[in-house]
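Translate sequence into structure tokens.
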Amino acid sequence: MDDSRPIFRQLAEQIENQIIDGSLVEGAQVPSINEYAAFHRINPATALKGITLLVDAGVLYKRRGIGMFVADGARSTLIADRRTTFRDDFLRPLLAEARALGISAEELADMIRKDTTP
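Result follows.
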């Protein structure tokens, strides 16, 4: 956890990352609010707020008396959301700067290929 963003958002993002990387699979039970609170040494209300973000987004669901579980389709939903965020936060500004500098799409693609080639 860092100080730059609210803790509940960081917790939600951590759970999202575990779903995306496969360490939390669809249908799997996630730790309880109290377990998250104890592990991260945070207030249970803060942990609940992070979990609630994911429930509201349809990523987690509650089974009364049992706990929280990863929803079916959660991974694909999260990946689609992250792709949209990536496009908006990184790709669009990159393309705008490339246009301002007169860099063509082909030149930009070549730059990317050269930087990703071992």
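Note: The chain has a mean pLDDT of 94.
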